[in-house]
Each structure stands twice: as structure tokens, then as C-alpha cells.
């Protein structure tokens, strides 16, 4: 098991946001977390990324294991550096005062000295040719879709082997949305493990192997994508009937 | 006429250099942490005292000649002063940051830390002033009625070199890139695999080291040290950084020289007791017209 979340309970101050949820991700899989607004999807990813309060919640119970070892004491930068687990956060959070290229370069901050960065830049620019055209541009002047591409490209430049994405399709035009999901599928074919949070459950279940449905901080359903897509309750709540 | 203008320009550059060097430290820390490190002026004072002890040790105990003592004093003071800055960050600011304390409490902590440095100095070394030992032979040159000393020129050159160096760090190096990234969006920085505390430590090292350098140069230029010497100059450097646009190193640099120029000009035309009154009034007027400072952009990015 690459990642396992076990009976995780987390709080923001006194407010409990996750009530003992468990799920896991195997190497090479695409796993999706779906659920309504406020279900606890972002909270789950923040916890795994080990981000600290006040923005992120505090783990008060349960465990998060990466390849069998608890990561509750791991610093967020070490999750990226040592575990090679990256997060594309909700709302992109690109560094608008840096150029596109600087954003990508910054993501290589903690990589090995002998990493073949040129090859990785080339890979990003092949995946997202738009970024190549705009590499000298200040990134706050990119369109929303381009910023999303940069957020994904930047996470990939960390040299990660597993990637968590929080609503990557938010604000993208339909064409770009499908393009992004094709890209994600392609990354997964090349060996990248993905944990995908999406409001658009249909799109997510289309590319995921398995999924979990979160409902107010608990797991309401889980199964393969086919099972979830066939589950009448899931269909009713998240797939429009 | 021309000679007197040039004379004032040189004086303004030299006097402004101290403000600029100190203002750079204010602005770096502010850019990265949005913290106004009110202890920074006192770090400058500590730097001058460290320079005093190192220089005295080199001259008397080691028996080094002045130039060698200076060559030792500069790096040693910069290193030791940056340790003071880093310690301050570690014991005063970092715990508050960990707890997510409101900015107001951090600023109050900074003010208190400054007072502790001043009064700690007073308690340990007593109220008597210290005379900084001469390290170099000050030579006065006069060209066409304009006179300046080797020390004044060295002060000005130092300020420009420091600015060029910091500008290079901020714009060209990966650490500088991380500093700019933090100033824009702290939240996402660890997600890039960057340990934020390391970047903050680098910021304090840079700011304090150059406050230490300012301390040496100031002590050489005005060789009387007292525990409160950093208070007023620190406030003024802070104001210079704000007028320049706090968070932007160009702003701090220009702001420092602007304040130096205003003060020198006031003294050239008015009784010297008017200096601070007119100086602060000019800065106030600038801020009224441009509240974000000369280089300040309304709340987008810093540094
Ligand atoms: N910073 C915070 N402080 C307090 N409570 C929070 C905070 N962030 C989230 N919460 C609460 O935690 C719960 C889970 O929120 P979370 O952001 O994880 O939901 P989500 O599933 O990502 O929703 P969305 O689809 O809207 O992004 C919600 O009830 C929310 O109100
Ligand atoms: Mg969310």
C-alpha cells in the first residue's frame, strides 16, 4: 500500500471536520474522493500533505501511513522531498509574482543535484505547450486555465511519484477539462499514482480505478469506479440521477 | 555653488547609506514575514558593540595593525550579528508563528525584544559610552572645494555593494525566489518541498549581517557607542523603508538615501534642531500622496 489513511480524525480548532475516515491508495492507481461541498475532501488532502494550522487542520486521532510508516511527524516540505508526494491545492496557489519558468524552477528546490531537470521541463512543456509559450510571463497574468496547468506542472517538477489534486477542473472550460483529464490519465499510464478530489464525479469516475464518497466527514460509500457509478445513491447524489 | 551642491550630495549619500543599510533589513523581513521587526535598529546597535569588542580584541590582545583588525572585524561582526538576529527569530518570533499568533502580538514582541537588547546592554556594560578605536587612518581629500574622506567613500560604496548583492540574491538565486514566493503565498511554499523556516533564517541572516556592517561603519564614522544609538536611527530607517515601499529592496535603498538627503539639506539651510521636524514632515507628505511608498504596489507582492 502506498498511502493509507486509518480512522483519521481532524479538527479545525474545536470543530471536527473528519470523523474517523479510512481509505487507501495503491501504487499506480487513480483513486478519487468525491463528495458535496464541505464533505472534507480538501481537509483530507491537507492532512496527508501535513500542512499545519491555521490554514490546515490538526490531526487528533488515527494515522496516516506512507509505505507502512506513519507520517504524522513529517514536515510538509519533507512529504514532497522525501516521500515524493505532491499536492496541487484547491485554488491553485501559484506564485503570481514569479514568472512561469520561476514557478517551475522553484518546485525543483529540494531535488537531487543530479536530477535531469531539462528532461522534466521538456515533459511539462510537452504536456502543456501553452506554458512553454508563456514561460517568461508573470504568472498572475495567465488565464485561469493556464494557471491550473502551471499548478499541475509545478507539482510535477517536484519530481513526485504520487500526486494529489484538489479540484483541478475548477474553472476550466469543458475542452480544457477533458484535455486535463486525458493528461492525468496519461501521467498515470507512465506510472504516476493519483489521488484525485473532484466535484465533477462523472469525470473523476471516468478515469479513476476506485473511489470513495465522503459525506460530512465520514466515508459514505466506496468501491471500484464501475461500482460507484452503478450505485443508485451515488448516481442520485452526485451523477445527476 | 556647484562645489557646495556636490559637497551636500556626498554628505547625503554617506548619511543615507546608514539608513539604506538598515532599511534593507527591515524590508527583507517584512517582505518575507509581513513582520515589522522593530528590534532591527537594536540589532544595528548590537552590531556596533560586537564590532567594538572584536576590534579592541584584535588591536590590543592580538596586537594586529589597524587594517588587519578591520579585515577581521568586518566578517566576524557580520557573522556574530547575524547569529543575534537568528537567535531572536528562533526564540521570539518562531514560537509565535507556530501558534499562529496575530500580527499585533508579533510586532509587540519585536518592540519588547528591542527594549531587551537596549536594556540588556545597559545592565551588562553600564551606562558609560564606549569609544570605538580608530582602525584606519582617515584621510581628507579636497578636489575643487569638495572635501571627502576615504571612510565616507567606503561607506557609500559598501551600501551600493550590499544593495547589488541583495538584488542579485532576490532576483537570481533560488533562495531569493523562495523569499519572493513566500511574500506572495506562504501557504504553497512547503508544497514545493521548501522548508520555510530555512528561508526565514536566511532572511534574518542577511538583514542582521548588513545591520552589523552598518554598525561597524557607523562606529568608525561616529566613534561613540551607547545602548540607545540604534533606537532613533532604527526608527528612521524603518520610516525610510516605508516611504520607499516596504517589502521592496529598491524602495528601502532609495528611501534610505532620500531620508539622508532630506536631513542633510535641512541642516544646510536651517538650524540643525529643525532636522527631524522637517525630515519627518517631508516623509509624511510623500506618504500622503503615495501611501504605499515610492515602490510599493498596493498589496500584491513584496521584496
Ligand atoms: N479553516 C477552516 N476553519 C474551520 N473549519 C474549516 C476550515 N476549513 C474547512 N473547514 C470545515 O471543515 C469541513 C470540511 O471542509 P473541506 O474544505 O475539507 O470540504 P471540501 O469537501 O473540500 O469542500 P469543497 O467541495 O467545497 O471544496 C467543512 O465543514 C468546513 O466548514
Ligand atoms: Mg475543497
In what order do the strands lie side by side in the largest sheet of chain B? Answer: 1-4
H/E element string of chain A? EEEHEEHEHHHHEHEHEEHH
Detail the poorly predicted runs of chain A: none
What's the level 1 CATH class of chain A? Answer: Alpha Beta
The largest inter-chain interface, given as chain pair and residues per side, is: A-B, 32 and 21 residues
Helix content of chain A: 25-40%
Q: From the 3D coordinates, which CATH architecture of chain A would you assign?
A: 3-Layer(aba) Sandwich
The CATH superfamily of chain A appears as P-loop containing nucleotide triphosphate hydrolases
Record field, number of beta strands of chain B? 4
Tally the helices of chain A: 10
Query: What does the oligomeric state look like here?
Result: heterodimer
Summarize this, please?
Chain B: This is Branched-chain amino acid ABC transporter permease. The complex is a heterodimer of chains A (241) and B (303). With 241 residues, chain A is α/β, with parallel strands linked by helices.
Describe the overall structure:
The complex is a heterodimer of chains A (241) and B (303). Chain A has one domain: P-loop containing nucleotide triphosphate hydrolases (Rossmann fold), CATH 3.40.50. Helix content of chain A is 37%, strand content 27%. Chain A is built from ten helices and ten strands. In chain A, the strands form two sheets. In chain A, strands 6-7-8-3-9-10 form a six-stranded mixed β-sheet, sandwiched between helices. In chain A, helix 3 (100-106) runs parallel beside helix 6. Chain A is globular, with a radius of gyration of 17 Å. The model of chain A has no long low-confidence stretch (mean pLDDT 94). Chain B is 73% helix and 4% strand. Chain B has a single domain, classed as ABC transporter involved in vitamin B12 uptake, BtuC (Orthogonal Bundle). Chain B has helices at residues 2-33, 40-61, 66-98, 103-125, 150-172, 174-184, 196-221, 229-244, 249-269, 275-289; strands at 130-131, 140-143, 146-149, 224-225. Chain B has a two-stranded antiparallel sheet with strand order 1-4. With 303 residues, chain B is mainly α. Chain B is globular, with a radius of gyration of 19 Å. The N and C termini of chain B lie far apart (39 Å). Chain A binds chain B through residues 49, 51-55, 75-78, 80-81, 86-87, 89, 93-98, 102, 105-107, 109-111, 140, 154-155, 158, and chain B through 98, 100, 174, 177-178, 180-181, 183-185, 187-188, 190-196, 300-301. Bound molecules: adenosine-5'-triphosphate and magnesium ion. Magnesium ion binds next to helix 1 of chain A. Chain A: Belongs to the ABC transporter superfamily.
Amino acid at each position: 500500500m502506498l498511502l493509507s489513511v486509518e480512522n483519521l480524525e481532524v479538527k479545525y480548532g474545536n470543530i471536527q471536520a473528519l470523523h474517523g475516515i479510512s481509505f487507501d491508495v495503491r501504487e499506480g492507481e487513480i483513486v478519487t474522493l468525491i463528495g458535496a461541498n464541505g464533505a472534507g475532501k480538501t481537509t483530507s488532502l491537507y492532512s496527508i500533505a501535513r500542512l499545519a494550522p491555521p490554514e490546515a487542520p490538526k490531526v487528533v486521532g488515527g494515522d496516516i501511513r506512507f509505505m507502512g510508516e506513519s507520517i504524522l511527524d513529517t514536515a510538509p516540505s519533507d512529504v514532497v522531498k522525501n516521500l515524493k508526494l505532491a499536492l496541487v491545492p484547491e485554488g491553485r496557489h501559484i506564485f503570481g509574482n514569479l514568472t512561469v519558468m520561476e514557478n517551475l524552477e522553484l518546485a525543483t528546490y529540494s531535488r537531487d543535484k543530479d536530477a535531469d531537470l531539462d528532461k522534466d521541463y521538456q515533459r511539462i512543456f510537452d504536456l502543456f505547450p501553452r506554458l512553454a509559450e508563456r514561460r517568461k510571463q508573470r504568472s498572475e497574468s495567465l488565464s485561469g486555465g493556464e494557471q491550473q496547468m502551471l499548478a499541475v506542472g509545478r507539482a510535477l517538477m517536484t519530481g513526485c511519484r504520487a500526486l494529489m489534486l484538489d479540484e483541478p477542473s475548477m474553472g476550466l472550460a469543458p475542452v480544457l477539462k477533458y484535455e486535463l483529464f486525458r493528461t492525468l490519465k496519461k501521467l498515470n499510464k507512465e506510472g504516476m499514482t493519483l489521488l484525485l478530489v473532484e466535484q465533477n464525479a462523472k469525470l473523476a469516475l471516468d478515469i479513476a480505478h476506485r473511489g470513495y464518497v465522503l459525506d460530512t466527514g465520514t466515508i459514505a460509500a466506496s468501491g471500484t469506479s464501475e461500482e460507484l457509478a452503478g450505485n443508485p445513491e451515488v448516481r442520485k447524489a452526485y451523477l445527476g440521477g | 555653488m556647484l562645489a557646495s551642491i556636490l559637497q551636500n550630495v556626498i554628505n547625503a549619500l554617506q548619511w543615507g547609506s546608514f539608513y539604506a543599510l538598515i532599511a534593507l533589513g527591515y524590508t527583507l523581513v517584512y517582505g518575507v514575514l509581513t513582520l515589522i521587526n522593530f528590534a532591527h535598529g537594536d540589532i544595528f546597535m548590537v552590531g556596533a558593540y560586537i564590532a567594538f569588542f572584536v576590534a579592541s580584541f584584535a588591536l590590543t590582545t592580538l596586537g594586529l595593525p589597524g587594517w588587519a583588525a578591520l579585515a577581521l572585524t568586518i566578517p566576524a561582526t557580520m557573522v556574530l550579528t547575524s547569529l543575534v538576529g537568528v537567535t531572536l527569530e528562533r526564540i521570539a518570533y518562531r514560537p509565535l508563528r507556530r501558534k499562529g499568533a496575530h500580527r499585533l502580538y508579533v510586532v509587540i514582541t519585536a518592540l519588547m525584544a528591542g527594549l531587551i537588547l537596549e536594556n540588556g546592554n545597559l545592565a551588562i556594560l553600564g551606562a558609560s559610552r564606549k569609544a570605538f578605536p580608530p582602525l584606519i587612518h582617515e584621510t581628507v581629500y579636497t578636489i575643487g572645494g569638495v572635501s571627502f574622506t576615504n571612510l565616507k567613500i567606503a561607506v557609500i560604496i559598501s551600501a551600493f555593494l550590499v544593495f547589488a548583492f541583495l538584488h542579485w540574491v532576490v532576483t537570481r538565486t533560488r533562495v531569493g525566489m523562495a523569499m519572493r514566493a513566500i511574500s506572495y503565498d506562504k501557504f504553497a511554499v512547503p508544497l514545493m518541498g521548501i522548508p520555510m523556516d530555512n528561508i526565514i533564517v536566511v532572511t534574518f541572516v542577511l538583514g542582521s549581517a548588513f545591520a552589523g556592517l552598518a554598525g561597524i561603519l557607523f562606529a568608525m564614522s561616529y566613534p561613540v557607542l551607547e545602548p540607545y544609538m540604534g533606537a532613533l536611527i532604527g526608527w528612521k530607517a524603518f520610516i525610510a523603508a516605508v516611504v520607499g515601499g516596504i517589502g521592496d529592496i529598491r524602495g528601502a535603498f532609495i528611501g534610505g538615501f532620500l531620508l539622508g538627503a532630506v536631513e542633510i539639506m535641512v541642516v544646510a539651510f536651517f538650524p540643525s534642531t529643525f532636522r527631524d521636524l522637517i525630515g519627518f514632515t517631508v516623509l509624511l507628505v510623500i506618504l500622503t500622496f503615495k501611501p504605499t511608498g515610492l515602490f510599493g504596489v498596493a498589496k500584491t507582492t513584496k521584496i
